[in-house]
Structure formats: C-alpha cells, structure tokens
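ugh finaly. both done.
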Amino acid sequence: MTSPLRDSRVLAVRLSALGDIIHTLPAAAALAAAGARLVWAVQPAARELLAGNPAVVAVVEIPRRRGWRAFFGEPRSGLLAARRALREQRCSIALDFQGLWKAALCAWASGASRRIGFRGRFRREPLSALLLNELRDLPVAARHVIDKNLALLGALGLDAVGRRDFPLPPFARETAAVERELAAMQLGRPVLLHPGGGWPSKLWPAQCYAELAARLGRRGIPTLVTWGPGEEELADRVGAGASGGATKCFPATLLELTALARAARAVVAADTGPLHLACAVGTPVVALFGPTDPERNGPWSASDRVLSRRPDCFPCHRRDCSRHAGILAAIPVEEVEQALLARLERAARA
C-alpha cells in the first residue's frame, strides 16, 4: 500500500539547539520511511548534521536573529532570503517541533497549507500557536522529548512513538581524521569529558571534571576533554587541574565530534548536545542532571547511568535561577567515578 505521504514535501522546523535537533532525528527517520521528502529549517550551528543527511532532501538555513526580525527588516542580512528559500521549497506541510514564535514564523513563511504544532499550553511561547492551523494535544504517555516529537507525526497518520533511530550524514572522512588524531596523542579509546554546555546552571563544575580525570588517569583510563565554541578556556581549566590525567581535544567540527563520540569508550557530560550525540551513536554515557528532567531529556538506553540532584524548582528551564544555581556541584566526584566504572564494566560484558 502506497503511503499517503509519499513524495509530499514536508518542512521540519527545529532551528536549535544541538541536543534538540538530535532528539528530532527519529521523527525525520519516520517521515523518510513513509516516503516524505523532508526539508529542514535550521540555524547555522547545526546545519552540519542535516546537510547530506539521508533523511533530509534539503536544508534551509535560518540566520540567528531574535523575534520578528527573523523575517521582517534587515533585507541585506540574508533573513528575507531565508524566507524566499522557504517558499521556494513548496512544502505542503510544515511541522513546528520547537514551539517558539520564530519556529511558527518559519512554518507560516513557508506557505504550507497545513501548519502543524502543539497547542499553546504545550509550547514554550503559547501564543505562537496562532500562526499554525492544526493544533495537537501532547499525549500523556509521551514523556521523553523524542516521543513528543514523534507524537506530532500522529497528525499525518504516523504512529512512530518509541522509535529510536538517528539518521546522520556520512562521516567516514571525519572518522579517519579522528583516528589519526587519537593515534598521535596515544590515547587509544579514551573516555570523553565534556564540561561545557549552553546553560551554566546545568553544568558540573570544571574542578570536578579535573578531579575525575585525575582519578581515571591513576586507573590507567585515558580521558579527552572536548569543547565547543567559547568553551576552550573551560577545557584548559579541566586540563590544568587534572595533574596530567586529561588531554585537551583538538578543535573539532560537529561531524568530527560525532566520530569522536563513536570512537570513545564512554562519555561523561551534563544535559548538553554532546551527551545526546553520544547517545545517538550508541556510546555508553554517564549523564549528570540538575534542573532539567532526565525522564524528558536524558539517555534512553537502560544501560546508561544518570546521576541527578533535584532543586526545589525542578523541573526548571530557566537559564538563570537562584534556586538551582550550582546544584550539580552537589554530585560528588566519587559517585561519578563509580557510575562510570560500572557503566564501562557493563559495556565490556555486552
């Protein structure tokens, strides 16, 4: 039986951030499997995960601007060009996975006759639902954000909740480059430590990563400290405090980071994009959670380990909040070390 979505051009709107885009990839896989020709609107930082992705036929880059300026004004900035590019894709369906004004504007600007998203009470910016014309309730059973994204496909007749496949662009060249770098550093298969992330209030302190690296070094387990834009100084602090137990990673592109995650023995990180990338490629993880809910954002493998400390405001998605500031510092290094050793032992038995 032919899928009613076969050859339909569908726009997915999930502009940022890295972890949220990764959590939307199973929806892309489900749409591609149904025969849809998926176009993705995304901001520049995550384009690398989508250009060349087997589930995506085209990418429309949306420059990073706030609010209504994304589509009105500043004609020389490329923003109006992005609006024209959305129209040129001739999508008949637009799916707003983000729940913000800017995402709803992308759906509206595309000219799609069906603009689908969740009702206002399930959106971060509730009134943005006014720009959509098909609104859905979020099923109670859709606890993880991956399943929330998959539930939106119910509007198209797809029952995909529970799907966990993550299409990625080919990265054989990046894998070869990473193998050369790891060989030059004589690291073998290291444990990746990623101390950075988008929200300072979600992060485990740099000195804790440094102590963890030192402990692992004494056990003969090499560690590599990864970092993204604006995080190099943080990686330096981890290395400086690790008593020679940590190696700072080379500057890595997003696909090189994907290759690193796949090559790693395990990854230790907070609720950040590199953690979710590691989960997507099947690398063992120890995830550190504070204000955000691991049942919603955390690893989905039963083998992975989650350590958390819940503040009074839990779950809280405010970047700056006096009630959860510094909450992850309450997770002791020894607890993380023991969780990591247990996870490595389980992986060795698998």
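ok and the 2nd:
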Amino acid sequence: MRTALAVCGVASLVHLIPLFLPRNMPEQELAIARVTAEPQNRVRLLKPLKQHPKATGAELREAAALLLEGAPAEARELLEEADRREPNALETQLLRARICRVERMERCVQESFERAARLAPGDARPDLLQADMREGDGDLEGALEAVDRARKKAPDEPAVLLRYSRLLSALGRSGEAEAAIRASASKLSPQRLYLELGLLREREGRNEDARRFFAQAVGEGPQSAVAHFYLGRAHFRLGDLDSAEEELREADRLDVSNPQPLAALCAMQMKAGLSEAARVTKMDLERRFQEQAELIQDACRADP
C-alpha cells in the first residue's frame, strides 16, 4: 500500500511540475486560457501578451477572441496590438467588427467592414460575417443580401451556396432555394445533395418527400450517422415510431460520441406516451453522457 501511495504521489508531482515552470511562450498562456472558463482568469493570463515581445499578430488575435464575450475592452486592447504588429490583416478587421458589436459600437462595426472591403475586396468572409450578424438580429433579408454578395465572390464554394439556399427557404422562396441546391450538385456528394433536399422539404412541411430524400441519403451513405438521424426524425413525423427508433439507434451505433440520436428518441417516446421506454432511454443517456444533463432533461421531460 505504501509503495502504491508513493507511486501515485510521484505521478501527481510530475503532472504538477509544468504549472510551476516559467512560461515564456505565448502559446503556453493560450493553451491554458483555452481550457479556462472564467473570463477574469483569462484576462489575467492573456492581457500580459500585449507586452510580450514574442507574441505574433495571430496569437494576439486568438487571445482577443478568447476574451471577446467576457472582457471585450481587454480584447480590443490586444487586437490593437495585433494590428500594430501585423498591419493590414483582414482577420484583424473582422475580429474588430465582432468586438465592436459586443460593445454595441455600430459605427466601429461599419468602419471595420469598410476597412476589410478595402483590404480584400474579393474575399467573401466579411460578407459572411455580416450575414451572421444580420441573421442574429432576425434580419433574414439583410442576411440573404450579404450571403448573395459572398456567393458572387465565391461561386464555387458549396457551403456558401447551401447557406444561400437555407435563407431563401426561411423566407419562403422554396423554388429558388431548391434551384440553389441543385446548382451546387456537382460540388456535393450524392448523399449530401439528398440530405440538403430532404432538409428543404422538411422546412416546407412536405414530410413524405423529406423521408424519401433522407432514405436516398442513407442508400448513398449507409455508414452516415447524420443520414440515419434525419431519416429517423422523418419516420416519426409520419407516425412510424418503430422505424424512427430503428434509424435513431443505428445513428447512435455509428456515432457513439453524439447524444443527439438517443435524445431525439427519448423525446419521441415521451410524445408517444411511452414513458417506460423513455425512462430506459434516459438511463442510457445519463450513463453515457453525464456531462449533458441539461440536454437529457430537456429531451426526456414530460410535455406540460
């Protein structure tokens, strides 16, 4: 027993040594900050990087991004230093726009986008960030306009085309949304194409068509957990709980790290009044995904 305790003590000391060693590289502070949740602790770690001679513009931008939500003023200080060390970087202007938005400085946001446009007139990233902001405000028309600009700058980028399609769909322009998906067909795998068409039909409430597309996606990619997940949801919307459970359990088997399939199954079982089956599913979720307590509670709660 004494030997075992001694070995454990030595092992603990070995793991603690790095915390007491002098840290003189910005990457060390960033690595610690990435796993530090408390904003003020992050400030304590990262604010000194402003005077650190070895900190690069990219490292200072990452430090600023890590402080964005909890300490935007300190984030802005780090970003200004990044701009001084690495002038004319588009990434700096985009991060400045985000920081200014958190601080509700709309003029600063606009000026940041104007600088970004001057620095990289053909880059789609400023437009995509503007789309994020507009969509977050509930301005879907404004988001669509921004994504349309991005689409014209990056016509061969399928992610941009698909986002354009989803916004068209959200605005009720289903025909244009489908045309945008099919325009990107040559850049998508067949499985992804069927998934996107299925999601479009799902948003339209055309559940039978959605199920057909999701089934085609499963046929193209039988090892795709995502395809089985969406097919399971489509089965449930059409009243076929047995098939829904089969597909969701297959999705869970194919991706054991994702709690969503079993969470969806638990929610379906509760809606169907299968409280005992839901209890068993919930127990399985709690055993495997202890850190997802809120997700499990929401999925398996009884309807009011």
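summary for the 2nd one i guess: The domain at 206-304 is CATH 1.25.40.10 (Serine Threonine Protein Phosphatase 5, Tetratricopeptide repeat).
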